Amino acid sequence: MALRFERGDPSRPSGHALLFFRTGSSPGADLHVTYVVVLPVVVNPMKYLPPAFASQIGGLVGAMSNLDAVPLPPIPERISRDELWRLATYRNDDVLDGGMLDGSVERLMTAAQEVTQQYAEAYRLSLARVPISVDDGGPVELEAPDDDTLRWVFLDERGRIDELTKLTGRLRDAVDAGDVLHAGELAMMMRRLGAHLPEKYRVAEMVAGAVRVGAVGSTLAQLYLDRCYKLCSEAYEDLGRIDREILRFESM
Predict the structure, then answer these.
(1) What pLDDT is stored for residue 126 in this prediction?
(2) I need a surface site. Which of 31, 80, 93, 178 has the fewest CB within 10 A?
């Protein structure tokens, strides 16, 4: 889902926000709300557990490490719209619209996590543009994210894959035309976009296949895109065949 600000500046997230979801069609219906906070310092909860306890929850170590952004409570609670805005105004919180959901506990929890991660990424990109001071007191400007990066961060996962599809088409046109310089620029842009997608989409491998000349490169590009859409839609039944086809063409 895309990140939608009802209050606050999308180009400069504050790092703390009230996130709401609508579960009823009535305009006056209560909202399901959680509080999203991006921690200024990354926390590893396992660091503070006694060794005896850590050994008992070994399977949760990965899930509990490097905690940097959380929705609290993890399952949004009912709050009236008036109370939401009263709190946001008093506390100067951002307000995020998570959209309409069916109201099930599982969907509320999953959606809260998804929006939290999008908000955290937008916050980190904004923070990267803020100058920092070094020992001599002089400000150092960090490299600012470009327009493409700022646009990608506000897209949901499907939107980023759609962007990847457009770039792949342009890359294949450049490869077929023998425009090496433009093809290199597009390949680099695709890798940058891939940094905003989970590793399961294997964007770097897609680029490596898509830059190959001729029918093999074109086929690999299409296979990887098909794979991305299957993963995004959780349509796993055909992934085995696609992966086998990718291996076959990559060996050519």
Answers:
(1) 80
(2) 178
